[in-house]
Amino acid sequence: MRVSVQYSTMIVKNLEESVRFYRDVLGMKEGYHVDLPGNSGITIMESEGGACVELIQNEAFDIGLYSVGTDVDDLDEAIRVLEEQGYHTTQVVPTSVGKMCFVQDPNGVRICLIEHSEEYKAQWMK
User: Fold this and answer.
1) Residue span of the structural domain in which 114 resides
2) Number of domains in the chain
3) Distances in Å between the alpha carbon of 32 and those of 40, 73, 93, 96, 120?
4) Potential cystine with 73: which of 2, 22, 39, 89 (Cβ 3.0-4.6 Å)?
5) Full-model pTM
């Protein structure tokens, strides 16, 4: 099973302010932005080393660290291994980039397991 950390997801109170901080103060680059219904949006901030910070403004969630996002090569295998070790995952859901589920580490931190589609990998993960 291959798992690689891709990003940390943070729920923020003001997306523009947070983007400015990560871009202008920390020197990260804006990867892409998605507007969501209401006063919500997502911006991916890319670091020089390849890891990203996913900033989400959405009043439905508490401010702070939401999850650590990982890329897995085989989500079904990852779930099987986790369940063999006594961990429980959420239901697998389709996403615009593939499919995903969550598991909590022993400290209660949400880990997002994402298996990206072949189309996504061909376009974005070169």
Assistant:
1) 3-124
2) 1
3) 15, 23, 22, 14, 14
4) 2
5) 0.81
CA angle 25, 21, 101 (to 5 degrees): 125
- Give the pLDDT score at 95: 87
* 18: amino acid identity, one letter: S
Answer whether residue 123 shows pLDDT above 80. no
> Comparing 55-59, 80-84, 95-99, which segment has the lowest mean pLDDT?
95-99
- For residue 78, give the nearest of 102, 58, 94, 42 by alpha carbon: 102
Residue with tokens 């209401």: 38
Using CA atoms, how far apart are residues 87 and 98, in angstroms rounded to an integer?
A: 22
Domain containing residue 30: CATH number: 3.10.180.10
